[in-house]
Every structure is written in C-alpha cells, then in structure tokens.
C-alpha cells in the first residue's frame, strides 16, 4: 500500500523562476494496485516518483508505505522497500558482466544478510526461475554478457533485478520510452507478468496513452503538481486513448471516474 498525503514541493521558492512541482498532492494505491501516471511535461510525474523513492525531500506532506511513515527515511534506507526502473536500459545493468552476475549484484544490494557464496547451484536455479517469468528465454542465457542482449532484454533484466528483493513499491519511470514500439510492448508484457507474479504495488509513469489504456488498474493524471483525474474500475477498463488525450486540454477540478 502506498499513500501520498498533501505532498508539497516548490523549487526556487520566492525567486523569479519559482517552480511548484507538487501542490498538495494526494494519492492512495492499495496493496497490489498498478497505477499508471500520465500528464503533460512538467506536470510533476518525476517529482512524485522522486518523493516516493526519497530522492526528493518534501517541503511538507507525508509518504506512507504499508502504513509506515517513511517521509523522513533517507533514500538509501528506503531502497530496500522501493524499487525503481529508469528510462535508460543501459543504466540498470553492468554491461561487461553476465546475466547471472548482474542478478547476484542485485541480490547483494537488496539483501541485508551477508551472501558468502557466489553463484552456487541453488542461486542459479532461483535466477532461472525468476527470469522465466519474463517469457523472453533469458533463463537460458545466464552466462551471456549483458552487452550482447537487446535493449528490451536488458530492460527486462533491470526489471527482474529491481523486483528481486520483493519491494513494497515498484516505480517505473518511463521505462519503455527509449525502446522501439515492438520492444516496448515486449517489456510491458514482461512487466505485467512480473507485477502480477509478485503482486507488487506499482506506479508507472508513461507518455504512451495506449499503454495507459492497456495496462494497470487505474490511470492517474497529474497537472500542475496535483492529481487532476483518476480513472478506476470499470471506467478504466472502458477508457480509450481518445478519452485520455481529451483530458490533456481540459482543465477542471479533480474528477474521479469509477465503477
Ligand atoms: N531539480 C529541479 N530543480 C528545479 N525545478 C525542478 C526540478 N525538478 C523538477 N522541477 C520543476 O518542477 C516541475 C515538475 O517537474 P517534473 O520533472 O516532476 O515533471 P514531469 O511531469 O515529470 O515532466 P516530464 O514529462 O517532462 O518528465 C517542472 O516545472 C520542473 O521544471
């Protein structure tokens, strides 16, 4: 469960170039809910994800994860509870290492236990199982160097590495934006499989309205640092790209479209 309460953040306050990034933003995702975040450039989408990950310190407001107030928790501590996949497929993985070595690195990062043994048989078997969820055949390429994988395979590996520690919240920050449309669709299918398999509470930022229609349980539209529109339940299932696009130009008070 993720809750953002009255989050406020202003950059360069009191200066001519003052920018309000988050303006009393409220948002609640129930456990296992997959929320898709859309909105114009500068609407506050990245700022919201940064506030959840701890990379952005709020001026006021609260962030709660599974009921725990993590507002004051520093980013490195929050990393055990919040996983994130970024836009650039090259950033989440180490190019000159194999798929299995990358998985081990992710384990070492997310585990508080000391992992003394390296790539033993039990660990390799576990990695195979985790990668098979993607449906991309990566489970048979554990010894392949990551720089020999396609962008889509690499981004899918980043995703599996991010969720390996079973985070409470998964943040997807335009994670398919740098991929060609076919590869983006493959990564989205892999994302849905991973999110469903682990029942992860997920926030995905996208500028791809087809993805916003096709994936997720709810659509959250940000505008000027606040939630302008939420589409949930049956309304989400029926939403079309044209519906979503129409809201980009309409400025109204917060609307809730639900079943
Ligand atoms: N580090 C920063 N310093 C100054 N202003 C910032 C900073 N980060 C964000 N902003 C400002 O806050 C507002 C919200 O930006 P944010 O990046 O969150 O929007 P976004 O919806 O993610 O946009 P995009 O779709 O272009 O990525 C913008 O006006 C932006 O210029």
UniProtKB/TrEMBL annotation:
Protein name, entry field: Putative ABC transport system ATP-binding protein
Domain of life, per lineage: Bacteria
InterPro entries with a match to the protein in the record: AAA+_ATPase, ABC_transporter-like_ATP-bd, ABC_transpr_LolD-like, P-loop_NTPase
Keywords, comma-separated and alphabetical: ATP-binding, Nucleotide-binding
Cellular component terms (Gene Ontology): plasma membrane
GO molecular function terms listed in the Swiss-Prot or TrEMBL record: ATP binding; ATP hydrolysis activity; transmembrane transporter activity
Species for this entry: Mycoplana dimorpha
Coiled-coil region list: none
Domain ABC transporter: 4-249
């Amino acid at each position: 469960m993720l809750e953002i309460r009255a989050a406020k953040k202003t950059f360069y306050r009191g200066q001519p170039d003052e920018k309000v990034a988050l303006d009393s933003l409220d948002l609640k995702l129930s456990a296992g809910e997959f929320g898709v975040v859309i909105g114009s450039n500068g609407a506050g989408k990245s700022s919201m994800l940064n506030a959840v990950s701890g990379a952005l310190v709020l001026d006021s407001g609260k962030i709660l994860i599974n009921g725990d107030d993590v507002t004051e928790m520093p980013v490195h501590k929050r990393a055990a509870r919040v996983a994130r996949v970024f836009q650039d497929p090259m950033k989440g993985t180490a190019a000159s290492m194999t798929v299995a070595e990358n998985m081990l690195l992710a384990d070492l990062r997310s585990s508080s236990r000391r992992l003394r043994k390296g790539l033993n048989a039990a660990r390799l078997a576990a990695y195979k199982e985790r990668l098979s969820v993607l449906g991309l055949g990566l489970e048979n390429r554990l010894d392949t160097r990551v720089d020999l994988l396609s962008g889509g395979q690499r981004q899918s590996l980043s995703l599996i590495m991010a969720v390996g520690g079973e985070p409470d919240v998964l943040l997807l920050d335009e994670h398919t934006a740098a991929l060609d449309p076919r590869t983006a669709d493959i990564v989205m299918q892999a994302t849905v499989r991973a999110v469903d398999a682990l029942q992860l509470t997920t926030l995905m930022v996208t500028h791809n309205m087809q993805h916003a229609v096709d994936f997720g349980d709810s659509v959250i539209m940000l505008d000027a640092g606040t939630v302008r529109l939420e589409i949930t339940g049956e309304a989400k299932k029926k939403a079309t790209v044209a519906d979503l696009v129409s809201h980009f130009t309409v400025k109204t008070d917060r609307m809730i479209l639900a079943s």
